[in-house]
User: Fold this.
Amino acid sequence: MALFKTPNIDFIGLRWPALALSVLVIAVGLAVTVVRGSLPLGIDFSGGSLIILKFEQPVGEGAVRGALAMIPEKVIQQYGDIGDNEVLVRLPISGPEEGVSLEAGANDVMAALEGAGLGDFEVIGQELVGPVIGQELQRRGISAFVFAMAGILIYIGLRFRFSFAVGAVVAVAHDIAITLSLLTFLGYELSLNVVAAMLTITGYSVNDSIVVFDRVRENLRGMRRDTFADLVNVSINQTLARTIITSGTTGVAVLALFVFGGEVLEGFAFTMLVGVFSGTYSTIFIAAMIAIVITERKATRVRQANVPVASKNEAISQRPKRRSRKARAS
Amino acid sequence: MQKNLQWKLLSIVAITAIAAWAVYPPGDRIRLGLDLEGGVHMVLRVQTDDALQVETELAAEQLSEQLSLQGLTRVTMIPVDATTIRAEGVAPDQDAEFRRLANERLSATYDREPGAGGVYTFRMRGPIASSLRDEAVRQALETIERRVNELGVSEPIVAPHGIGGNQILVQLPGVTDVARAKELIRSTSLLEFKLVEEGPSPTRELLLQARNGVVPPDMEVITGSPDALGGSTEPLYYLVRRVAAVSGRDLRNARPSLDEFNQPAVSFTFNREGARKMGDLTGQNLGRSLAIVLDEQIRSAPTIQGRISDSGQITGVTQQEAEDLQITLRSGALPASLTYLEERTVGPTLGADSIRAGVAASIAGLIVVALFMLVYYKLAGINAIVAVVLNLLILMACMSYVGAVLTLPGIAGLILTIGIGVDSNVLIFERIKEELRSARSIKTAVGAGFDRVLLTIIDTHVASLISAAFLFQFGSGPIKGFATTLFFGLVANVFTAVFVSRTLFETILSRRRVATLSI
Assistant:
């Protein structure tokens, strides 16, 4: 069974519409962020309290809202399945760090609920995060991304060529931007788990790019007649079946997580889901295109300087001559 | 070639057996993280300024005593903040003498800055301050460790945390009474014995009437907790010496007991040093009151009836307080107060829900992926499924072997590993199909497929390992669990996708003459 016999899709020709789509999605995310005033940081990063309560008897969200009317800036959500009688209450950071104890907000909530006569309840989960920890996690999250990208840039630069490395890393940045955009748009919060998922995507997205680059490298040895762009296009087509099947199977696995993984993993699974598909898309339309642009620009510069460079790993520098030959042939 | 193949098969069977043995039974062999098992995760900050404050106050007090012994009575030593002391009122003719005495006591720890009009400022040296801070954090860590061990939690974690050097991570799996655990960890339990100069008095003003409302620099006003002092509901004010004559550091032991009215109490005994100090203090101050101060609150202030040197009692506590107090007193006082920066509690029901959800998602993911592989790659799909299942088995075995913790994101890592495992197989299978199309024999096509893809697989895995490594750096407990799972999954996958899958192919191809490959 085969999905594609020998696909021959002109991905290079599709690059501008693809780019427009990416820009559109990212712009929407940016717009939402600007309107909101900030990224939707969860309490892991912004600090605050999150309390998950389980009531003995069915309690409506409205009743809980009424009981907590006095508490400012809270968010109340039903948690888990309806029959579980579970409610999530989230509070922003309570005042400056010094002087206000970490559990103050949570204690207020508890006291208010006990006074409201909604029946017995127990706290089944509670997260209290002070601003110090939040800021530290923000810093560590950002540095994890920066170092991971730098590591990948160096590794691909060493194993392939610099233009590929730049392409792969820009593709990763694109995936992060797309994921952030969709998360913001759909109102997901950036929690630790979500950021972990985004870091995982960096690895996954690069996977795809490497498979294509690897094929490009292989084809560079065999197919000497084509332009670099054609060669990349052929390589993308050759690996397309694999690319689509694997992002399909990984996507399905992650979809299982999204459907069955429960409330705690929902954000994580969604991020992975977006990342898996964006990673595949960006491999074709971002990583490969950037590698082409950088390589061709370098080739043009070499031609203009009219200096024949015979470096072993830069065989591409001789490409312009071949291109003219091919033009004649066709 | 045949023999070679047998060895390969044998080693795969052996590894499978070892992995299965390492994982069985999974309930005992796989350690669950707090988010699955339930428990509490806390990050505390040691207020290291407290420790410096103590040092600075002590230094000021000692120099002040020395000065009055030498007749420089007009000089006052004021501890300004945690690291600064100001000396005021140094007369010009006593300047040289003051500097000599100050050098003797302070020059090792403080830098002296001269000021105008008989004022000097002493500032604690940076390296000394930072080593005192480190010491305070280390002591706090040890103290918390001792207290947590008394809680009877299995496998608690008490470890330094973060980059600031003043944070401590405490993880208590399975703890349900979080409030008590927090109190037990946080309570400073600083036990001090201070001579009472004045009091008790119902108000602060009344207490200080004789001194025109001014607290002398070497004294302080503290209140007694009303319950502990019997009957009255209003706090009582005492004027006591600032420096404790004897402290909790001089204790040898503490245990719950009963007081003379059969009420819960905590009895303690002094060590040799403590007994000597207590003997001197009580011997010289017969008839005066001695305040027993716990965490800046006077628990009782009995009159010294005779020389005491061996033991004492803290009264006016509840049964629970007595239990906790003996733990905290025995573990020693914290050198500084603690603030909670982060607290995450997962109840056992929430954890159980997460396990159920994670297992359901994993099984669903595995089934769907397996079905797809069977439909799309037919018999070769079985190869991939064997490789993926073995991958998961080896992954779990590695986790169990290094004692890594399985967290909820870790379960997500398992599912992702399924995806990555299939990815490698698809990469290989597609390549084999391609080689078959260029009309090679089946054997060479399979061989070429694996050979050509090997480097690609290594490259993709190294890139993923790079992000997993930074993920590990970045994360706290659950994320670390995810990074660990991902790491082992990637490493195991190189083995299963390349070596195991290939051996299976070769075995099938060597058994019979295959006309067409079912792929």
